[in-house]
Amino acid sequence: MAQVSEEREDRVEATGDQPAAASGTSGAAEAGAPATPEFPGTTAASRTPEGAPVTSGSANGATAVPEASENGDAGRLPSAGTAAAETPVVPETPPGTGEADRLSAAGSAGAAVPAPEAKKASKAGRNLPAAIGVGLLLGAAIIVSLLTVRFLFIGIIAIAIAVGTFEFAGVLRRVADTRVAMIPVLVGGQAMIWLAWPFGREGALTAFVLTVLACLLWRLPGGAKGYLRDISASVFAAAYLPLFGAFAAMLVPPSDGVGRVLTFLIGVVASDTGGYIAGVLGGKHPMAPTISPKKTWEGFGGSLVGGVVAGALTLSLLLDGHVWQGVIFGVAIVLTATLGDLVESLIKRDLGVKDMGTLLPGHGGIMDRLDSLLPSAVVSWLLLSAFVPLG
């Protein structure tokens, strides 16, 4: 045996061959492989060549497939069963990526992508382009009717009052289970508006009284339950919508009716616009926070400026009145328009609704546009009749 061993050693020294490492033996690689010159003390089998992928073997100790090293030497990968020789796979990052970016990519690969920042709500509180477009269309229709056949404006009033009545009655029915006597209120409302044309306030008031009587009779078959509630809502609807609207219709018949209607409408629009702009730009002090939180004293000041300027100009230029009369008219219109806004805001808050309807984009319903016009129509007719003699 000793002789065989010596002969084998002689052959190894002569040829330089090394005995093959046994598969699955952890110390064979170190014993049979020569040390590399770059890394003294390490062997080619224990060193993974730079850039060579690690190939996992089977769990039973099978050796990995050897890869060629950079200098052409045949390196040997450690056994797959040797856990200490395995290295974790780190995902590659694009060249030029900073260290912070590589750490962020490696540490937050499974993190959820942050949601985009929510779009800030418009400070105006509504769809401003749609509101402006609808307002211009309504204003154009009114101006065309006044400048062609002015009595067409009474027809516009009648249509608006009918639609507003439907909206108001529908909200009461859905939210408060209150039944407005629709037929008497609709028919009586049209009678108030059209009778105000030839007969003035006597015709409108007569039609209103007859409408109330018709509502009392119409509701009788429904029984006692909710009778007072339904009658009260019906009488309120008849007074708030068609009766107030009849005063706007009474501005049309005089010979200077176009000037009267324009003075009334321009005053209300100037009040609303001035208050809106001032409130959006600098509104900080709520005027009635429990009724309308967005209405501010700064907005009210803007309404006063707009209404007074509009009243002074329109009453003096369109109706040959005095400037001081226009100032009084403007202040009165601002007060009544603001009162109308607050009253409808309180009604909607009581019913728990944001708008009375959805017919007008950016505005809501017809009722949401009539809130400041209806009470202002009454005051406009009273003041213009006192300041400017009927012609």
How does this model look, in words?
This protein is mainly alpha-helical and 391 residues long. Among the domains are: 146-253; 255-391, no CATH class. Helices cover 59% and strands 2% of the residues. It is built from twelve helices and two strands. A two-stranded antiparallel ribbon has the order 1-2. A hairpin with a 3-residue loop joins β1 and β2 (292-296). It is globular. It starts with a helix and ends with a helix.
Name the descriptors.
391 residues, mainly alpha, single chain, globular, two-stranded antiparallel ribbon, 59% helix
Helix-strand layout with pairing:
Layout: H1 2-15, H2 28-32, H3 99-107, H4 128-147, H5 152-176, H6 182-218, H7 227-249, H8 257-282, E1 286-288, E2 292-296, H9 297-318, H10 323-351, H11 366-370, H12 373-387
Antiparallel strand pairs: 1-2
Helix pairs in contact: 5-6, 5-7, 6-7, 7-12, 8-9, 8-10, 8-12, 9-10, 10-12
